[in-house]
Amino acid sequence: MGSPPSDFIMTSPESLDSKEFMHLNPQDFRGQAHKAVDFIADYYKNVETYPVLSQVQPGFLKNRLPKTPPNTPESFDTILQDVQTDIIPGITHWLSPNFFAYFPASVSSAAFIGEMLCTCFNAVGFNWLASPAATELEMVVMDWLAVMLQLPKTFMFSGSGGGVLQSSTSESTLCTLVAARDRVLDEIGIENIGRLVVYGSDQTHAMYKKVGKIAGIPPHNIRCIPTRMEDEFALSPYSLRKVIEADVEQGLVPLFLCVTVGTTSTTAIDPIKDLADVAKKYNIWVHVDGAYGGNACICPEYRPFLDGIEKVDSLSLSPHKWLLSYGECCCLWMKNPNLVVSALRTDPEYLKNKHSESDSVVSYKDWQVAGTARRFKSLRLWFLLRSYGVENLQNHIRSDVRMAIMFERLVKSDVRFEIVVPRRFALVCFRLKQFNGFDTSYTELLNKKLLERVNSTGRVYLTHTVAGGVYMLRFVVGATLTEEHHVINAWEVIKEMANTIVNEF
């Protein structure tokens, strides 16, 4: 070893300040945590007073904060105050009852407590021995949810399949796509990866293209099959078959089909059974993305949207969108988890133990993209399911749908507006109609201005989409704190802004 630099000074333990910095002092933690909980409760209580869509401009925060970190500790009270003054103005408030954009990020007291305990234990349950309760509770909760969805036993640990909690639909889709890829490459050879083709519709979530490229599928082999407004933007089995037949004729190898229950733009429902029948003729892995719409299928009246699920290979849905669970909570069920494990398994010596050698013991590190990073997220769902019970979760879904139906009726009551596609679940797609002989491009401009005006008020936040070449506004009910009067007030804001725009033209 070389000599230390001339200005390097060895510090003995005796010379250190006698007052050590305590990383986790239980008493200090108790006081700070109580203050934090009070802060959070007040935020939820007052969230409606903030503009829903943040009104700041790019660069606002880096211009407010120091360029370097502090050399000495700052007080907890000072930091918390800065959250109020510096951070909150830059937040778009997804938990506002006036948030009707994208899809909801639903929350609940029960899930919050579960998340606190997850953080408390900080267990890294990558295999059974690393935290037995983390592994086994996840297995139990995944089977509970499967029962709620009336999934076949082939997707459950109590049957021949199993489930895992991922952070996102993207990760769930990637895991299943990699498993499908490796299964086929074992037969045709890795040198033929360029022949693999994956299928979805032009309404499939954008993550489908991303995970396809990550899995090594050539971008020109990622099919986005056109849908039609006449079919309510559902993927046609006939169109799918025609595209597959053309690929096979060209010597390509059909690999993977992503079916959607509740697309992002319009909540279109792809027909699972008929699409699976087409896919199975070509040994295609069928994955169902039910990120939003799948949650509603815990209600008997929506369960028919999963008809044919027994014919597919995997299914994912995201409780953080509509089942009151905090973010990054996606459930993935598979008929044959061993295919995913085979594709993703790592077996370093430092993780081996007698339990990890057993095929009968689940090691969740091999069910995910991450190596050993794995939080105890099943605690969140466990608290949620026990605190609510199935009936109350069903009623929660139905309540949001009722409010969406109310908004739909308000839109229909104004002759200037139209519903663009039939409402499903709690999303209403609408727009100002074409009028006064204006063409389609002019109508689009009109609706863009309407969206901009509505969002600039800070009283409501909506987003838009384009499907079938039609620009439309999306109104999604689902924020935990939303009540009927928020929906009515939102409609009043929309009408008010529409009045100003129509008068201008």
TrEMBL record:
Family: Belongs to the group II decarboxylase family.
GO molecular function: L-tryptophan decarboxylase activity; pyridoxal phosphate binding
Protein name per UniProt: Uncharacterized protein
Superkingdom of origin: Eukaryota
Positions carrying N6-(pyridoxal phosphate)lysine: 321
CDD domains in the cross-refs: DOPA_deC_like (cd06450)
UniProt-listed InterPro entries: Aromatic_deC, PyrdxlP-dep_de-COase, PyrdxlP-dep_Trfase, PyrdxlP-dep_Trfase_major, PyrdxlP-dep_Trfase_small
Record keyword Disulfide bond present: no
GO cellular component: cytoplasm
Lineage: Eukaryota, Viridiplantae, Streptophyta, Embryophyta, Tracheophyta
Gene Ontology terms describing biological process: amino acid metabolic process; carboxylic acid metabolic process
Swiss-Prot/TrEMBL keywords: Decarboxylase, Lyase, Pyridoxal phosphate
Signal peptide (UniProt feature, chain positions): none
Cofactor requirement: pyridoxal 5'-phosphate
